[in-house]
C-alpha cells in the first residue's frame, strides 16, 4: 500500500502533517486497519497536534505578559497568532472526527478496534473542547463524555490489563479532571481501573507488559496528585 509506505517515510522524517495525510488516504481505501496501522494513524494526528497545542499555550502566555507590561499592540499580535493556530487545531480535529464517524467506527470490529476508535473520538472531542467556549465547549464536552463512556462499556470485552483499555481509562479520567473539573469522578475512574488491573497483573502478556505498566503508573501518579489536591 503506497499511502502506508509513504506514511512510514514521513514519520521517520518527522513530517507529521504529511504522515496524517497519508494515513487519511489509507483509511479512505476502506480496508480495516490492523494494530500497527491504528497506532500510526493515532501517532500521525497526535504529533500534528502536539506542537500546535504548545504554540497556543505559549501565545496565551505571551499575550498576558505583553498586556501586563503595557504593550497592547504586541499583545494583539500574540492573540492573532493564537487564533490562527487554533484554527489549524480545529481543522485537524474535525478531519479526525469525520474519519472516525464515517469510516472507522461504523466498520470497527467489536472489542479492541472499536474501543481504540471510541477512545480516539473522545480524545479529539476533548481537544476541541480545550480551545472553544460557551455552546461549542458544551457540545464537544458532551460528545467527549459520550465517546469515552461508550468506550468504557466496549472495553469490558478486553482483558483488565489490556493497554487499550488502560489508555482509555487514563484519558477519560484526565478529561474529567482537566475539562469537566470533576476531580472526584477522575479519581473514581482511575482508582477503579487500578483495583481491577491489580488482580490480573500476573496475566499481562510480555509483549504488552511495558505499555501496561507505564499506563498503570500514570494512573497511580494522577490519583495521588488529584487526591492530595482535594485534601489541600
Describe the structure.
The structure is a single chain. The protein is built from 9 helices and no strands. Helix 7 packs parallel to helix 9 (209-231). Helix content is 80%, strand content 0%. It is globular. The protein is mostly helical and 232 residues long. The model has no long low-confidence stretch (mean pLDDT 93). The protein folds into 2 domains: 1-107, Up-down Bundle (Delta-Endotoxin, domain 1); 109-232, Up-down Bundle (Delta-Endotoxin, domain 1), CATH 1.20.190.20. It has helices at residues 2-12, 16-28, 35-68, 72-104, 112-130, 134-154, 163-178, 183-198, 209-231.
Short description:
This protein has 9 helices and no strands. With 232 residues, the chain is an all-alpha fold.
Summed over residues and divided by their number, the pLDDT gives a mean of 93
List the secondary-structure elements in sequence, H or E: HHHHHHHHH
Q: How many distinct beta strands?
A: 0
Number of domains: 2
CATH level 1 name of the largest domain = Mainly Alpha
CATH topology of the largest domain: Delta-Endotoxin, domain 1
Overall helicity? over 70%
Structural class: mainly alpha
Q: How large is the share of residues in beta strands? A: under 5%
Task: Report the sheet with the most strands, covering strand number, pairing sense and barrel closure.
Answer: none
Shape: globular
Q: End-to-end span in angstroms? A: 55 Å
Q: What's the architecture of the largest domain in CATH terms?
A: Up-down Bundle
Low-confidence stretches: none
Global Rg: 19 Å
Can you identify the CATH superfamily of the largest domain?
A: 14-3-3 domain
Helix run count: 9
Amino acid at each position: 500500500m503506497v499511502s502506508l509506505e509513504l506514511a512510514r517515510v514521513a514519520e521517520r522524517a518527522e513530517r507529521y502533517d504529511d504522515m496524517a495525510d497519508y494515513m487519511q488516504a489509507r483509511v479512505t481505501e476502506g480496508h480495516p486497519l490492523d494494530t500497527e496501522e491504528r497506532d500510526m494513524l493515532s501517532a500521525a494526528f497526535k504529533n500534528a497536534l502536539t506542537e500546535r497545542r504548545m504554540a497556543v499555550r505559549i501565545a496565551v502566555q505571551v499575550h498576558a505578559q505583553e498586556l501586563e507590561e503595557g504593550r497592547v499592540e504586541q499583545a494583539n499580535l500574540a492573540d492573532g497568532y493564537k487564533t490562527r493556530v487554533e484554527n489549524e487545531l480545529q481543522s485537524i480535529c474535525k478531519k479526525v472526527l469525520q474519519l472516525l464517524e464515517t469510516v472507522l467506527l461504523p466498520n470497527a470490529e467489536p472489542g479492541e478496534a472499536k474501543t481504540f476508535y471510541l477512545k480516539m473520538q473522545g480524545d479529539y472531542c476533548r481537544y476541541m473542547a480545550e480551545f472553544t467556549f460557551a455552546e461549542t465547549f458544551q457540545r464537544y464536552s458532551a460528545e467527549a463524555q459520550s465517546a469515552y463512556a461508550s468506550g468504557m462499556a466496549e472495553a469490558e470485552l478486553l482483558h483488565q490489563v489490556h493497554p487499550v483499555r488502560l489508555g482509555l481509562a487514563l484519558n477519560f479520567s484526565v478529561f474529567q479532571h482537566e475539562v469537566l473539573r470533576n476531580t472526584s469522578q477522575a479519581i473514581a475512574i482511575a482508582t477503579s481501573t487500578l483495583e481491577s488491573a491489580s488482580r490480573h497483573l500476573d496475566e499481562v502478556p510480555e509483549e504488552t507488559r511495558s505499555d501496561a505498566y507505564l499506563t498503570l503508573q500514570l494512573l497511580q501518579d494522577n490519583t495521588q496528585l488529584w487526591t492530595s489536591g482535594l485534601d489541600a
